[in-house]
Structure formats: C-alpha cells, structure tokens
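Bug #77: duplicate submission created two jobs. Keeping one. Sequence:
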Amino acid sequence: MASPEPCSTSGPCTRTVAVVGAGAAGALVAIQLCETAARRRVPFELLLIDPAPEAGRGVAYSTLDPRHRLNVPAGRMSCYPDDPGHFVRWLCHHGEPGVRSGDFAERYRYGAYLADTLGRAIMAAQGVVTVRRLRTRATGCHWTTLPGGDQRARLELADGRTVEARCVVLATGPSRATSAWAPGDLRGNDRFIADPWAPGALDAALQDGRKEDVLLVGTGLTSVDIAMTLDRPGRTVHSASRGGRLPQAHAVDPLPAATCATPLHGLSLAALRAAVRRHIGRVMRTHGDWRPAVDGLRPVTAEIWASMSTAERAEFVEQDGSLWNTHRHRMPPATAEAVGRMRRTRRMRTHQGRLASASARPDGSLTVSLTTPDGPRTLPVGWVVDCTGPGLRLSDTADPLWRSLLDQGAALPGPLSMGVATDHGRLRGADGGTTRPLWTLGAPRRGELWETTAIPEIRVQAATVAEAVLDPWTAPALPATGGPAGRRTRRPVDTSGFPLSTHAAAATAYRLGVDRLLKVRTGAAPALRRSVALDPGFALGHAALALIGHECGADVDVSRALADARRAARERADDYERSFVDVVSRRVLHPPADGDAALLRHLEDHPGDALALAVAVPTIAFSGLRDLDGGTALRVVERTAPAHGESWFHTSLLAFMRQEQGRYDEAGVLAERALAAEPASGHAMHALAHVHYESGDHQAGRERLQRWLAHRGRGGAHRAHFSWHAALHELALEDTAAVRRRWAEQLSPGKVYGVRALVDSGSLLWRARLAGAWQGPFPIGDVLDTAPADVLERPATAFVALHSAIALTAADDLPGLRRLRVHALRADEVQRRVIAPLCAAFEDILEERWTDAARGLERLLPRLPGVGGSAAQREVVEETLLYALVSAGRCEAARDRLAERLDRRASPHDRRRLTALSS
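Kept job's structure:
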C-alpha cells in the first residue's frame, strides 16, 4: 500500500476535510464549506474526491439530452436555502433572460450552474481554503484515535494512494442499481443495459437505422427520460413495473401548496391514510387540483416518517411507496406532453407486471416474457434497459467505501436497512455513538427522512453539515464591547464612529464606500465590494451592497448580498450591525411599512448612524421613508440632530427638509453652510437646486448647477439628476435649444443607464413633449432599451414604478402599461393604491379618453407623496394632468392649477400657458 499523502504543507491533518463525491450533494456541501470558512476566516484544506471530470454534475446532471429537464421548478433549485432565486438569476445571466421561477430548466444547465457556483465559492475562499481535486474513487475509510481522543480518517483510493483527513463528508449520492431483479441469463447478455447513464451505454440502440423495440424495466422518472432519448419513428418503447404507473405531471400554472388542517404526526398508518385522503378531498373541492394537497405535505413528511413504527414504515414502502412517488415526484409539463404524444402514437406503451424471463434470438435481439395481471405477455425487443432507479438498501451495497464503513462498525444501517443511521447527518457507529467526525447527506439518509433526494432537502443538509464541520474550528464571535472573550480588542469604526466586526482593511474600504454614498459620489459600489472581498463575513458590507442594489440601481445581486449579510450577521455581528442588516432585509423583502418601522427603530437606538439617516431622508439616491403624512422624515432629522452636531452631512439633510417645508430662505442658508464645509456634498447641492426651482429663480439656479457640475460635481454619482434639475430650469425658461443640448450631452442613453435613465432621462423627455419643447424624432425607445425588463414591468419600489409608467406612456406602449398595472396590483400597498390607478389613467391618455384620464389623475394627486421622491419629481403627474385637462376642454380647471402654481413660484413657461388659456 502506498504511503499516506500529507494533508497539507503546514502540518499533520489538523484541518483537512475530505468530501467524497462531487456530484450535486458534494458540490453543495463544498460550496457551503468554502463560503462559511471564508466568512468565519477559518483556514482548512478541502479534498474533493470523485473520478468525474467536472464537479457538480454527478450522474443526474451529466446528460446532454436537452429533453431531460429538472422535475422541480427552477425557483426551488437554488444552491442556497436562504436565497431561493439564485438559480433563476444565474439562468437569466447565462443565456436565458426570460426564464421564470416556475420554468423547468434542462438538467445539463443545472449541472453547469452547480459547477460554476462551486468554482466561484472556491475563488472567493482563496487564501482561507486550500482545495485539492482528486479524480479517483475512495474505496475504503479507516479510523484511528489520536492522543487526546480525536479521530483521524485514512481514505484508500482506487489509484493506490491514501490520504488522511480530520473530517469526512460522504456525498456519494444514491446507491447504484444492482439489477438483482434480472434473470441470470439476461444480466450476461450484451443487449442488457444495466446502467443507462453510463457514457455510451445507449449508443448501440441509437445507431442510425436501428428501430428494434426496447423494454425499460421501471416506470419512474429515469424511465421517462430514457424513453424520450430512445424514441424514434418505427420503434415502440415499452416500460414495465409492478405498479405500471408513470409519474404524474406538474401543473402548467401551479397553485400554492395547501397545508393540511389536521395534525398528522403520531397517527397510525391507517389513520394517516384516512387523514391524507380527507386532506386531498378538501383541496380538490376547493381548488380542483390534488397537487397543492400533496405539496402541502412536503414540510411535514420527515416528521410523519419519523413518527411511524418500523412495521408501519415497511408497510408504507410496500403498499403506498409507488403511489406516493408517482404523485410526489412529477414530470415537467413539457416532458408530460412529449410522453403523451408518444403514448397516443403507440411509440410508448406501459405495462403492469414484472420481467419473468428473457431469451436470445438468432439475430441477437431478445424475447422477453412479462408476468402481468392479465397473464403472461411476450415481447420481441432489441434491448432491455434497467430503469429501476437506485437501490434502497445501502446495507446490500457493493460499494467498497460504504462496505468498509459498515464492516468495521463506523456506519450502522438505517431504518429498514435503508441508508445509514445518523444524528443530524453525523454517522452513528455500531455502538450507537457519533464520536467520529463523519457526516453524510442526501440519499444515504433516506431510511431516517424518506424524502431526502431532492435539492431543496439536500441544500439545507449541506449548510447544516458545513456548520457542524467548521464549528469546532471557529473562534468565538466578537461581543458588542470588544474582541473575543477574555481579550480586549480595539475594533475599527465606521464613518459614524460605530465599531465594526471586521478587520482594518475591510473597514477602510467600507468607510470609503459609505463616504461616497453620503457625498452622493461615484465609487461606492467598488469600495463596498472590496470590503466584502477582504472579509466575506463582514455583514455591514454585504448589507450596504444589497441596499444600493435595491434602491440605487447599482449592479449588485441584491438577493445574494442580502443572504450573505443575514448569514454573516448571525455569525459575527453586534446589536448595531444586526439592527442595520434587519433594516435592509425589511426594505428589500417586506412591505414598505415594515421597512419604515425597522428603520425608525434603528435610528431611535442609533441616532448617529449617518448611512441609516441617508436611507430615511428622501433627498437623492435612496427612496426614503414612505412619508404619507409629510412629516416623519423631518422629525427624524430634527430628533437626530444632537448625535450629529454641526456636521455638514446632517446640515445638508436639514436643508433639504426645510425646502420641503417651503422655508426656502432658511434652506438656502443651510445648504450654503454645508457646501462651505464640504463642497462635494451632493445632498446640499440637491437641496439648493430645489430652493432655486421652487423659488422660481431659474436663471440663477441653472448657473449655480452648471458651475457645480463642472467642478465639485464632476465625480457625482447622480450627475444625471443634477442635469435633470438644470433642464427643469431650462424648460421653465422655455430655452428649448438648451434642453436639447443638455439631453445630448448629459442625459441621453450612453451617458446615463438603467434606473437613472428611467427616472431622469425618461421623465424629462415626457415633460419636454408635454411642454411642446421637443420636435422631431422622440428617443424614448433608447431610454427603454437601457432599462431591464423587470425594472420596467416588475419594479421593486413605487418610485421606480412611477417612472416606468411615465416612460411606457411616452413610448405609447399600451401593453407594457397594462403589464405594469397587473404587477402593481400584486405588489405592496403603495403600488396598489397609486401606481395601478396611475397606469389606468395613462392608458386613458394613450387611448385619448381625456375626461377619464383627467378625473383619474385628479384623484391621484393627494396620494402621490406615498411613492417617495421629491415634489419636483412627482410634478410630472400634474404636468400630465394639465395636458389632459386642456385636451378634455376643461380649460378653466387648467387655468386654476396654473394660477395656483404661479402664486407659489415664477415660471415664464407657466405664465405663457396661463395667458394662452385666458385669451
């Protein structure tokens, strides 16, 4: 035997984890190990042992046949239990932009997703985790006890080497089929295909010109896939099983799962059957479909299985297992449609029975005899394919690795000899203990859990195993007042002076990012990305990224960043950090009212948090508090003043609030004071822009913005918005040439992208059209091309939804407006109350129902503050109302509105319009 390889170059196996198997289960646990270690800064060596050329695929996801699809919707196939949309987003960024969570992706694509996600996790953990890939099989595992009682594993490999590891995770997947059911003379025949997934196994049956019929033994999902692969004109694919049932089909438009009203835990098997039948009957009567009833049992399946006696489990497997599997593990709709076509054209036939015998014919083909309820049946076939699926009894396995563990007592057969006995995934030995650092997940736990072979279950187990493996090596979390217990550690602080649970380098990058956000300057996202690259376990860095992705349109995977933030906050954060992560979580995942309440609580406890204050006050960048009464944001600014003193940042926000109150002189003084202290303060300049606009000082306002944009504002993160303000002055001055020039130089697509183009460029174009200031080709289509479809038709916030509606109206896109209205009706309360009726009014405008449009917009104006943003931004709706009033012939109402506006501020454009309406 070869001598053991060293586990690492730094020492004898103190932190080496071997993951045996690199299919789906192995990839999932390796991803969790790498990411958890990177967050916790736990260095270790990871051995991935599997002969496959690429990790992540295994048998299930190596198929190249595009007809082979996942039998679980893409929205439930994420690698991460806390980020269910991850796989869907991956598909969208890898060639399938229109995919939805209810779609059924190709199995090969899922294998690519697993491999890519694992590769990214390994790259992100560089410097913490050392990864070695051993492309061979593990054939044995033997344990020795070290001085002090710790255990060490020696893994024997098929290529003759051995490796040592401190911990072992067995991610071997389902047991291979043994074909023990097949007659002896069939097992030795080259027309018998024992493993249809083996490379080249089906080649002979797929050769051109070969049309012999085929018998598939088994009628489950494997049989369905192989039947589609072997299908061809002139061939009949027979499938046979004891029950003769094919899997049921998923619904094309599935309904939500329906929870069983009756507690099922602890019932006898007979009572359980009766309760489940009643549950399905109720759901059928209510929904007309049995699927929601079966889906509603999924969360409690493991609990029910655990409550059964051994005899009841055996009876269930024997009498109910097949029926359960055909209804629980269903075909994708497209697969069901293909199978239906095959059956209708007699290219696929299903039989209830078992294969009794097989004999060779002179031409090499086979004659098989089936025993069926209707008597013997003989079929001439070219091949017999074993599609019975994996074996249930791991104790019968021929796998040398599992055999060695069972033989030496390191593993114990599970209930009914299915799988192995574990304690939350950690293997029990023959003595019933779990002293060895040896875990498994997925199919080997079937005896204990019954349902444990699907990704939604395995990914949760992978996270649990990763935490269990790394917990003993993880240093204590930082307490709120310092470093690890028993040692005083000076923690770096953020821009507001709050201690951070990270190291100095990551804190420096984070401070730079926050400073950029507070000044409304570019570069925040790269700095925040650097902070989490330096420390993947830094909760505030991830949370800030999620925040600017959600509210500022930054190029951030919001769901992933938020999941990372929440996970890191659980592992290493103090009260201040956990509170901020909760704020971001609620703003992203919950109704606006929940997000506002969390933000107010956070500022009550931490009034000096400048970033949270920026989020709360809707000046620019963030949507702010959904301030329906118009005073909450002001009260927050005034209440937090003592914590900020005379800081330029707080003064900038107070200036903005004062102009919102109409106290323009005071606001101007405060803005100038803040700009004197920090000339790059975007918030102060923004307040000053509003002061000039609302005061009707359009010429001075344009000139001041021009100077600031040319100097201190050159690095501004929202230059387009300041250019938009300057363009509003030019519209008021009726300087149409300047408006066109500013569009071309500062606001056209190519200069502005994404949400910013939608909010500033799109709304400016619409206002210019309403004002008669835009002649010739109207480039709104270019604006729409820069905005992703989900932002246009499925916006996350009411503020973005408002501007989506404006842009779609400007583009005369009536179908798009209707889709946006449908989204708004299903979204949060503000979108339901404001955006949905706004879309309806804009539809009236496009269809020239002017009276209806004006009436709808008049009703909406009082509700508009709820969408967030400034009065100047929301004014576009009033401009649209004025246009509708004039078009409807209600000139007196339009004159009244214009006169009221002119009483508040001067505007040459409004004055000319009023004169024209009065003549």
